[in-house]
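Deliverable D2.4 — example input (structure tokens):
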């Protein structure tokens, strides 16, 4: 409470002191904001809040464009598993937040062109993200609920292509191991202050393991209209994934017998999913005065999900999600920059569960309406005093969660309210070197899926509590310098209460339940080095060395204090060597070293460390005055045996999802 009051007093004090001395700025260009993810008008690309900004132009030329991990390897403390099970999605964690996800992304906010891919309850799906048209990715590491509310253990903001001249034409055809194929076509036109970008792609594969086939079709539209003193942007997206099968987790002896096999129950119950989703968003930016700007965002998302899980009772899911929201930002520029914001978010899940009779739908066991409503108000400011830059923010969230059990005629609701402050100080020694110190707070409410996961398939798990987090950081950077060696080193320390942890029960194998895990601590050192050896040769080294432990967690009579949190390694190291052999040929070598981790809360099942080497070639080809890029991706060239995913706390020690050995992807794109 004292931290909240101190931050609030500081925020209000700085506002009062500077508001009487604000000077009008001659020109304002909203696109000058270097760090857009901050939701505040700080025009300097500072090291505040541990932000990484990645321009994907070079990555796009040689990437397979199938997994988001290809774009995020150069960011410390970002750890991704489950690149090959498309029924579960990639499991992304940032500084350990998100590592507990049973499926999809949990505890991290994801945006594409300012439209949230994260539902208001905190669950994210990334199967409708068009990797092929990504132009820039910004990643905000660390807890930041003062800017983004619940489930903000990190933020990933993706922006797709929109800057081009008269026309834009992009196309790709690529093939790979396991009968993988990918096709996409992008067309854009820029005329009379109007831009239109259309994108279509299809990806399908038989998968590395048995019962891991998937198919995904995506269509994306972006329309941009330049107004007199602003901009209108309309974005629409359609996803159709008719099948994504789930091979399930194996026991260690099953892995040794056949790494490519599927779990027997997953075959028995025809485990997998199909998804269809529609999404639309409208953004309006308007300059009201030279020092005053207004931004509005409104969106609607409708998702149809049909899933089959590897158990009988409630193993067939029919889920319809409706999600809409509105965001208002009022920005005032001056010696003290202000940002005032309002958000309304509403999610309604219509959840039905049936008996799974070996893949055939049986009796209805759950018919439930679930609602998650959010209202939030936030304020942030930033200002400079000599070599110091100060950033302060505070946010209030009110969440109301309700359910209506149509089978048992039960209903109820809970209300959760939270204040989230944050404060940052940045000191520039000179134009090249800077030091920053940051405090931020956060919270994470249970998702509707977690709340509804009960043994009797009815009602909510009222015992689940909101997780609370406090995050501290200090870092030093010379990333703004012109030196051949650029670096940033950051130390972080996060402590939480009521951490939510998944588990399984003997009588319900494969079904996930959730409980709070007392206190946890996350701390570590992140290092980023970028070395320009020559014009043709560059080297990147990214490392994260940390500790992720339970501080206060008891299950029955067993104390798990000082046990490591499962699903997250204590260390990761990434090396990337980019060699331009000549004007038409590039060679890229990268290596990822992942430390050991545990699969369970009791730390009885250890996953050994491993290292993966990849080799990529890119060649430019000229045909009839048209330039094409031919690429070859040789993945896991040493054929290392490791695990692509770890199913945390799975009953019967079915933790393991084996990763492919050596595999290849190649193609040609314009």
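Example output (designed residues):
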């Amino acid at each position: 409470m004292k931290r909240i009051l101190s931050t609030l007093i500081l925020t209000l004090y700085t506002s009062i002191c500077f508001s009487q001395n604000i000077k009008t700025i001659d020109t304002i260009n909203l696109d000058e904001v270097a760090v857009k993810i901050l939701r505040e008008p700080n025009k300097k690309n500072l090291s505040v809040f541990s932000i990484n900004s990645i321009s994907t132009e070079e990555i796009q030329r040689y990437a397979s464009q199938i997994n988001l991990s290809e774009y995020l390897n150069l960011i410390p403390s970002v750890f991704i598993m489950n690149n090959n099970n498309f029924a579960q999605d990639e499991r992304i964690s940032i500084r350990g937040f998100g590592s507990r996800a049973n499926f999809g992304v949990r505890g991290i906010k994801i945006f594409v062109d300012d439209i949230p891919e994260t539902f208001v309850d905190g669950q994210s799906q990334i199967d409708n993200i068009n990797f092929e048209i990504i132009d820039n990715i910004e990643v905000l590491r660390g807890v930041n609920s003062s800017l983004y509310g619940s489930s903000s253990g990190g933020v990933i903001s993706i922006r797709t292509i929109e800057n081009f001249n008269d026309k834009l034409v992009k196309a790709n055809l690529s093939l790979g191991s396991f009968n993988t194929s990918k096709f996409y076509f992008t067309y854009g036109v820029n005329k009379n202050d109007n831009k239109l970008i259309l994108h279509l792609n299809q990806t399908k594969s038989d998968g590395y393991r048995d019962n891991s086939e998937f198919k995904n079709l995506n269509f994306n539209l972006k329309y941009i209209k330049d107004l007199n003193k602003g901009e209108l942007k309309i974005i629409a997206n359609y996803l159709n994934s008719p099948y994504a099968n789930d091979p399930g987790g194996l026991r260690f002896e099953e892995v040794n017998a056949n790494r490519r096999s599927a779990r027997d129950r997953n075959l028995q119950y025809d485990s997998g999913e199909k998804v269809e989703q529609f999404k639309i968003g409208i953004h309006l930016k308007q300059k009201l005065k030279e020092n005053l700007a207004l931004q509005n965002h409104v969106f609607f998302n409708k998702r149809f999900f049909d899933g089959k899980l590897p158990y009988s009772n409630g193993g067939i899911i029919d889920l319809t999600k409706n999600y809409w929201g509105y965001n208002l930002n009022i920005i005032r520029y001056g010696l003290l920059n202000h940002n005032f914001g309002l958000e309304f978010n509403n999610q309604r899940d219509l959840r039905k569960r049936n008996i799974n009779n070996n893949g055939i739908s049986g009796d209805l066991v759950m018919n439930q309406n679930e609602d998650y409503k959010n209202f939030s108000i936030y304020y942030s400011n930033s200002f400079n005093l000599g070599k110091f830059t100060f950033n302060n923010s505070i946010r209030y969230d009110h969440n109301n969660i309700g359910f209506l059990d149509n089978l048992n005629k039960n209903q109820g609701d809970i209300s959760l309210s939270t204040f989230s402050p944050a404060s940052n100080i940045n000191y520039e020694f000179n134009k090249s070197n800077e030091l920053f110190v940051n405090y931020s707070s956060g919270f994470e409410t249970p998702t509707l899926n977690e709340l509804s996961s009960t043994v009797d398939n009815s009602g909510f798990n009222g015992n689940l509590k909101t997780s609370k987090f406090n995050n501290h950081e200090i870092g030093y950077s010379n990333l703004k310098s012109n030196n051949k060696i650029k670096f940033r080193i950051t130390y972080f320390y996060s402590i939480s209460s009521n951490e939510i942890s998944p588990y399984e029960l003997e009588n319900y194998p494969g079904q996930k339940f959730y409980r709070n895990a007392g206190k946890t601590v996350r701390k570590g050192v992140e290092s980023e080095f970028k070395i320009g050896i020559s014009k043709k040769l560059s080297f990147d080294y990214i490392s994260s060395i940390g500790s992720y432990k339970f501080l206060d967690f008891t299950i029955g009579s067993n104390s798990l204090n000082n046990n490591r949190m499962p699903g997250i390694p204590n260390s990761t190291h990434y090396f990337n060597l980019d060699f331009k052999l000549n004007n038409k040929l590039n060679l890229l070598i990268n290596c990822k070293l992942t430390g050991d981790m545990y699969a369970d809360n009791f730390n009885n099942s250890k996953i050994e460390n491993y290292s993966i080497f990849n080799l990529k070639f890119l060649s430019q080809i000229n045909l009839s005055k048209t330039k094409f890029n031919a690429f070859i991706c040789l993945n896991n060239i040493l054929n290392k045996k490791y695990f692509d995913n770890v199913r945390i706390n799975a009953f019967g020690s079915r933790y393991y999802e084996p990763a492919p050995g050596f595999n290849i992807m190649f193609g040609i794109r314009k």
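The mean pLDDT is 88.
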